[in-house]
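User: I'm putting together a small comparison set for a docking exercise, and I want a reference complex before I start. The sequence is below, and the ligand is guanosine-5'-triphosphate. Could you produce the 3D structure with the ligand included, as structure tokens?
Assistant: Of course. I'll restate your input first, then give the structure tokens for the complex.
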Amino acid sequence: MYRFTDYYRNDVTLSFDDHPFSRDPKHVWVICRHNGKWLLTKHKERGLEFPGGKVEENETAKEAAIREVKEETGGIVESIRYVGQYIVAGKGATIIKNVYFAEIRELTLQGSYYETEGPVQLAKIPTNVKRNMQYSFIMKDDVLKHCMKFIGKQRKRN
Ligand code: GTP
């Protein structure tokens, strides 16, 4: 379990256990890889981030993850696995978010990328994300660092 504060000084708790905070989280975030690169999206207001969003009614969190990747990047998920879960205790709402790791088979052209400008592929996530204006606040807390480390270990094992 990791505890830290986010860009807005909200308390964040992250765990790599199996759904420690909720079996039924309402938010998802998907760390994506395609063709040997990281696949992000450029949110029109927030900037660069891994795709994600809210779980809709009548959909599982994993289904939401697959849908959000397609909507925000055009990416078709080849494989996806649960990584961990985090809870953000905000000033108003408290949100619980599942993190997934997905391999993307192909990028399809979308008519709309919703609130984003679509896919952005990066060979490397820069080390200065926290100070980099191009990046979304979602990328600016230690969820990113811990999840990238966890995924790196898993990928080495496989
Ligand atoms: P909509 O306008 O309905 O999309 O919702 P919202 O803007 O109120 O945001 P949402 O319900 O998604 O999240 C509520 C608050 O939780 C946000 O304002 C953020 O402060 C925080 N939050 C959401 N997702 C994340 C995240 O991935 N990381 C961190 N640190 N905070 C988040």
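The mean pLDDT is 97. The CA atoms of residues 82 and 100 lie 5 Å apart.
User: Thanks, that's exactly what I needed.
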